[in-house]
């Protein structure tokens, strides 16, 4: 019986690394599957900050993932990274693929946005997944405490308002500013997130 598994965590918890590992392991056993991502910092591939990457199908806002699976039939599995950015309808399409096509789906995503709120895709995956697995690689705040928040840092200050989706990276403090604001993300514990303290 196929399963919809949702693995989630903060930045730095190994989501993309695990997604790539699962895809590699299944493909090595001569199983045919699709690797998908949305808004990866490197474009049409899944990338890990450890330096590994693989080409992936880019999930656009208008992509019907169920139809994509039908077009690639026969299919054994799908590995979906950055599902926090998928629409609720696309998440439901993943469930349909599991239920109607008996295809295992391994989905990975962030749990909350920079405001500490669930992403729409994350919320829907938590509601419908057969298995919900927090990732056990614990990222740490600069103070050493367990990191619980993905803080958005604009020009070296933590911000709490703005568009939900702004692609940035985890470049260090004082990164060179180009074309206006420098946007990056930093992992913080709840206390330092609320205080807006970056420890620099």
Automatic annotation (TrEMBL):
Keywords: ATP-binding, DNA synthesis, Kinase, Nucleotide-binding, Transferase. It catalyses: thymidine + ATP = dTMP + ADP + H(+). Coiled coil: none annotated. Substrate binds at residue 185. The keyword Zinc does not apply. GO terms for molecular function: ATP binding; thymidine kinase activity. The active site is at 82 (proton acceptor). Belongs to the thymidine kinase family. This is Thymidine kinase.
